[in-house]
Amino acid sequence: MVGTYFIFLIFLLNCWVQIVPTSGYSLRNCTAHGALRFTGLKLLCFRRNFSQVPPDIPHNTKLLDISWNNISQLQEGDFRNLIYLKGLNASNNQIHHIDRHAFKDLTVLQVLNLSQNHLSALTEGLFEGLENLTELFLGGNRIQKIDAYTFQFMNNIKVMDLSANSLLRIERVQPVFRASNLEQLYLRQNNFTSFNTEDFSNVSLRLRVLDLSLNPFRNFSVTTNIFPCIVSLKLLGLEGGLDWVVTNKSFLHSVKNLSLSGFHTAKPGILSGIIKSFANSSLKDLQLNDLQLTEDKMFLSNVCRLLPKLQTLGLKRNIFTLQYNTFVHCSMVSHLDLSWKGLKSLPKSLFKGMHHLCFLSLAHNHLSAVPCAIQNISTLQTLDLGFNRIGMLKPRGFSTLVRLKVLILEGNNINAMNSAHFEGLTNLEELRVKKNNIQEITGTWSTALHSLRSLDMKFNKLGYINNDIFQNMHSLQYLDMVGNHISKFDTGAFKDLSNLTSLQLGKNPLKVKSFDEGDVFAGMPLLKLLILFDCNLCYKSSDELKRPPFTTLKSLVYLSINSQGPNCLVRIPSNFLKGLSSLRELHAGHQNIDFVHPKTFSHTPNLTYLDLSNIMLQTLDPKIFLTVPKLSIIHLNEAHLQSLDFLIHANLTRLKFLSSTGNQFTVVNETHIKALPLLRLLNLTNNPFTCSCENAWFQNWSLQYSMTQVLNFYDITCNYPANYKGLKLVDFNVDSCKLDYDFICFIVSSTLVTLTMVSSFIFHFLRWQVVYAYHLFQAFLYDRKQKPSRRYEFDAFVSYNTHDEPWVLRELLPNLEQGRGWKLCLHHRDFQPGKPIIDNIVDNIYKSRKTLCIISRHYLESEWCSREIQVASFRLFDEHKDVLVLVFLEDIPDCQLSPYHRMRKLVKKKTYLNWPKCEEETRLFWHKLNTALETREEPNEESPILSGLEAFD
């Protein structure tokens, strides 16, 4: 029994553990991307005005962004248990101190960003625990000192940024080189005035990228080969008077990318001397941008002569003049950037001899026409003439550029285009002419541009698209005409765009009549993206259209029809989306839609994303969503919804994200949420919530359910009742709204434990008394039922011990049954076979008028005799009749009766008979016993069973 009790207690404790709620997923002032129960969580806590690291970071966070806050210290324990964290961004704070063991738990961290803080020193042990760190960003601090062994054990670090600090002397960087696998080192803007490789003793690095830009070097000396693997070297912003020394050109032989941009000097020859250090090297990429030089006219020509392998040359924002022979030795250059130079014209033979030039940028200059110099570049593949002052194109102006694939003419003043302008560009794949003044396109472009794949014409002044423009343009895949003045299409304007996948027509004053006149989108079977925002598509009724516009777009995946203007798209026709069987994403918000027909989405069974934000709905018919079983993202922000009841019957079983901010509902209940079993993100801010018990379940669920994140839950405020207006919903006390389950569990468990212990006690000590009481109760009920007509089967029940059985058989039976005619009940003779003994005892005692107890020492010691006299005593108490007759066969002193308290109590209350020792007294004994048995218990009680008693008397 005790074992059962302990098992029961263990069960209760197990139930108690399971009742305790899981950790909450509604994070205060942070947004999580991903499920709380899985690793890989991305936690965004930037710009939240934190003064310390938030304490409720989920343990399975993989990427943590706490940038742009007011954190001043990183303390031990701030990142406790974040064993999965791989990326930490703590930039743009006010961190001036970091505890030695602050990062000890971040054993798998790979990227650490501490830039733009107030650190002044990197001390030994600062990065303890970060053995797996690969990227460390410390730019924009105030670092002046780095201890010798700060990076000793960071053997996996490959990228380190120490830019914009106050190191002042390059030798202070030497501890960094203890990170033996470092590949990229950024030391921009540290006020270094001197660089000498001799300051780094016994160092041979694997550095591939070294950025020393924006340091006021006065001398730069490379006398030892400490950078045998260097590939990219940046020395932007060098000042005049630089003493450049490279004792052996082989020390820089591996450099392939060199940037000397922003070099300001008044002394000629300095820059040429630097270039000579790389003569005949592997240098392929040279950036000489923002130069203010007084070099000789042959400087650029000499650059290419000294660097025969040069392939990329950047010359942005320079002021020196280009000569006809500037690039005469640059035959291997393939990429040339001459943007932002203020060029108005180019020497006609400027690019002569550049037989490998494939990329040329002349953007952001002052060219008024396409320069003739480009006609000599037959190898050109990309030409950028964007943001010049070109107003007119000449026919066949690009005819010699037979290999050209990308032509950029955006940001000019072109007002008309003709197919003749592009004759000869048979390989052109991409044409950008956005942000011009194009009002008209004439001719059939396919004659010249039959290989064109991408055409960007947005933000021009086109007003009309006829059938000829895109005729036979079978290669075109991307067409962007956003922001023009197009109001009409000819029927079949796009009929030959058989491979078009993206068509953008947004922000054009299109007329619905254009759609009604024919299948305007016919001929584009592969179209996947269609943009029609702000196109004045006005429909006032949800009635079916005779000719729905999208019936031929079987492959369309993305459709935008949002922002159609005030009072324009009031109702979406019920068959407006007919034909869009592949549609997955629909944007239809920011307009005055006040009703959505239940059949609206019956033609889009694969829809997964729906945006109906900023519309005039007040209710939604749940039947709308019954035909889109794959819907996983819904935006219903500021849709004037009064409740979320539509969710209950909408069958949105796959919905993962629901945003319904700025609506009018006040309550979110359990039924709403249970209708969305796969919901992962929920945004309900800016709704007039009620601080009442109606939202108690939603509050608890938002804080405890680990599968769904309620975005910005801690910012949700209450609007009702008036005394709670402005109160955060999370601060509303819901204790009064729920049963005290803790107290109930305590009462139930305490009661069960008490009952278990009481039951154990009764079973062990009083089980026979309980059995007797049970039978006594049964007898009482039987007696009450049978009392008016009770008839006894026996005159007396004889209770005796088996040791006294000879006396019963030899003396008692002959005198009472044979001599007196009494009917006695003897257990060996009258008990019913197979029946439990106790049941036989109880039944026969109550079937007898009286109970005759034959008492001896053996009788007192007998357990069954004790039970019999107990039952007889209970009957005496129950019926209040003189039904007990005691006969002592031997003298038993009181001291011997003391252990038998029940017998002693009876002897004190009742008269009893003693079996006489003298034979002469036996006749008197039998007379007294006969009289005791003959005595009526009640005046009107029936006569004895046998009728011979009167004669005997």
Detailed description of the structure:
By secondary structure, the chain is of the alpha/beta class. Among the domains are: 192-320; 787-952, Toll/interleukin-1 receptor homology (TIR) domain (Rossmann fold, 3-Layer(aba) Sandwich). The chain is 19% helix and 15% strand. The chain is built from 17 helices and 47 strands. The strands form eight sheets. The chain has a 29-stranded mixed β-sheet, with no helix packed on it. It has a five-stranded parallel β-sheet with strand order 44-43-45-46-47, with helices on both faces. It has a three-stranded parallel β-sheet with strand order 13-15-17. Strand 18 (257-259), helix 2 and strand 19 (285-287) form a beta-alpha-beta unit. Helix 1 runs antiparallel to helix 7 (741-765). The protein is elongated and about 165 Å long. It starts with a helix and ends with a helix. This is TIR domain-containing protein. Belongs to the Toll-like receptor family. Residues 792-933 form the TIR domain. It is found in: Membrane. Pfam families: LRR_8, TIR.
